[in-house]
Amino acid sequence: xxxxxxxxxxxxxxxxxxxxxxxxxxxxxxxxxxxxxxxxxxxxxxxxxxxxxxxxxxxxxxxxxxxxxxxxxxxxxxxxxxxxxxxxxxxxxxxxxxxxxxxxxxxxxxxxxxxxxxxxxxxxxxxxxxxxxxxxxxxxxxxxxxxxxxxxxxxxxxxxxxxxxxxxxxxxxxxxxxxxxxxxxxxxxxxxxxxxxxxxxxxxxxxxxxxxxxxxxxxxxxxxxxxxxxxxxxxxxxxxxxxxxxxxxxxxxxxxxxxxxxxxxxxxxxxxxxxxxxxxxxxxxxxxxxxxxxxxxxxxxxxxxxxxxxxxxxxxxxxxxxxxxxxxxxxxxxxxxxxxxxxxxxxx
Length: 348
Ligand code: NAP
Ligand code: F7E
What we know:
Layout: E1 5-9, H1 14-25, E2 29-34, H2 43-51, H3 53-58, E3 59-63, H4 69-79, E4 83-86, H5 93-96, H6 100-120, E5 128-134, H7 157-176, E6 180-185, E7 188-189, H8 198-210, E8 217-219, E9 225-226, E10 229-230, H9 231-241, E11 250-252, E12 258-259, H10 260-270, E13 275-278, E14 285-288, E15 294-298, H11 316-322, H12 330-347
Parallel strand pairs: 1-2, 1-4, 2-3, 4-5, 5-6, 6-11, 7-10, 8-15
Antiparallel strand pairs: 9-12, 13-14, 14-15
Helix pairs in contact: 1-9, 4-6, 6-7, 8-10, 8-12, 10-12
């Protein structure tokens, strides 16, 4: 049987690494787009290239960038993918405030470039497309939990750029009968999460503090509350979405809430440190109940011009129609991340 071909933009990111492993295990020939960089940037997929000859032979990397229409067109033409997973993005919400035009170009127009490449190359009826949409589309809306019918009110350049992509995908599905799906993903984390995102910033700092390599962890908005899932569970649903009779959009979420403060408390507890919170606002501190030492402080530097206070999702549609439920609990996720960082720090 001929192997299916998948093209992944953003293959070097957290989700790209989990998804490429899943697809290779399913027998796919996987192609990934890698940005030119002055240094090595494929660390998250390097293991796949050395795990076994069979896996390495199934992974093909191409230099490209979502801002480069001709390059994207050329890669799509040469790969002729059965499935495209558009995971590439400037994915940091805080950074999107300082790079709004670049974020719009990559996260908004980048999707259009990909869809146009598929359409213009005559692949509209053969190539299925997954778009990495986001719970940030909901922004400041107060309805909770959020489902596929909840109105979008994005309040960051990132969310607004992703909203453009969301509707462009819906439009290409309706106008050209293309198989295009939006996965509206709530926050999902893992040991492969970038260290600038809050959960990994916490797990890596907790490991360093435990090992005496760092004194204090500085965070921003401790009240921000998110629906944190495990990235390894979420990539399965990306694949499932492209295996249905008809394309549709789905929320992926755990339905459980945790504030940043609660996540930090649980991460410290995992290494045996009981954190007691005192004070409020910029004066709030997390104190080691045993030693009285301040281990966590709040800094203005990590606040955003506008933030999303609370995001929790209702993934009933994915559960009922695709049989998908996330299997990793928040406690398991926290332990997995902190243990990984402890081991990594010990080996440095
Ligand atoms: P990530 O770890 O930040 O990975 C982003 C990927 O996009 C990286 O491979 C990055 O390449 C690539 N990229 C950035 N700019 C690019 C450009 N101009 N052209 C081509 N590729 C580019 O993000 P993630 O957590 O895996 O998320 C995957 C996707 O899901 C993103 O679109 C994100 O916005 C979306 N999403 C994520 C979450 C979440 O909680 N993780 C939730 C909802 C939606 P480099 O490695 O070279 O930087
Ligand atoms: O922030 C607060 C911060 O940067 C979560 C991306 O994958 O998920 C992610 O976006 C919350 C925010 O993720 C710090 O203000 C407090 O309220 O980890 P984050 P995010 O902004 O939710 C969505 C669904 C995506 O689509 C995105 O691509 O935590 N927070 N203190 C902090 N955040 C950071 N980064 N650093 C802090 O020190």
